[in-house]
Amino acid sequence: MPNPTRSLNLLGATNFRDLGGYAGQGGRPLRWRRLFRSDHLAALTPDDVAVLSSLGLARAYDLRGEAESAALPYALPGVAVHALPIEPTVVQRLKDLLESGHQLTPQDTVRLMQQTYRAFVHDNAARFAALFGHLLESDAPLVFHCTAGKDRTGFAAAMILLALGVSRAVVMQDYLLTNELFRMPHSAAPGRAPQEVLDVLWRVQPDFLDAALHAVEADYGGVLRYLEKALGVGSKERERLAALYLQPPG
After folding, report:
1. Is 146 a catalytic residue?
2. 9-62: per-residue pLDDT in tens?
3. N or C: which end of the chain has fewer CB within 10 A?
4. Beta bridge mates, 59
5. What are the residue boundaries of the Tyrosine specific protein phosphatases domain, all occurrences included (predicted)?
6. Interatomic CA distance for residues 157 and 175, integer angstroms
7. From residue 129, how far is each of 52, 57, 159, 187, 231 by CA, in Å?
8. Which CATH architecture has domain 17-245?
């Protein structure tokens, strides 16, 4: 497939997309049809499932919280599904604030999102380390996802791309693609949240990912040190990732 599409244009997962083609370490591009990121997979149509089967998808890593996964479970033929729950979810935090009587503004929601991304760096490092452990096992096609495929998945994608040597600018470009692709289901909106708050909650902003990356820089001295110290991805592991997921040199 000489020119694969980044978005797979699935009906039941609007944010399902390929990380292939980005220039990584030494200018070597990521292999296509190996690493996918997505929103949740519980609404896939039979045609969607057939597409994923044709790609040889073998592994799925579900970053949703336990209640999210229980509410919208899924199974895919031939795909091993692994739960790596990251909690508390930002939607749960928002609901808790609303139920306690807070009148949230868009600015409050931006701060909540930034707080959530900083928590990925520290509180949820073990889950992201586990995801890397799975990535290092083989190059069998895989997808990692959460509910919308934008925050937990967005941070995971950023770490994977950075570990493979993709530039920070391209990582941000990939992160922001959610705003072009993701379509929020009506049932996903927490009750009583004003529309301007939902507009922040269900989209991504550079400030969100930057909050995590700034925490990485401030607390670990850089992405490579964070990968090694917090996620168990040192130089040998990065070489292994490059061998698995980058095009061979030359």
Report:
1. yes
2. 999 999 999 999 999 999 999 999 999 999 999 999 999 999 999 999 999 999
3. C
4. 80, 142
5. 107-167
6. 8
7. 26, 22, 10, 32, 4
8. Alpha-Beta Complex (3.90)
The alpha carbon dihedral of 156, 166, 57, 52 has a sign of: positive
Angle between helices 206-220 and 168-176 (to 10 degrees): 140
- The long-range contacts involving 1-5, CB below 8 angstroms and separated by at least 24 positions, are 1/32, 1/33, 4/32, 4/33
Nearest residue to 223 (alpha-carbon basis) of 156, 154, 162, 169: 162
- pTM comes to 0.94
The amino acid present at 97, given as its one-letter code, is L
Q: Where are the domains of the chain?
A: 17-245
Whether residue 185 has a cis bond before it, omega within 30° of 0: no
Is-contact 127 64, C-beta < 8 A? no
**Catalytic entry in 146, 164, 204, 231:** 146
One-letter amino acid identity for 132?
Answer: F
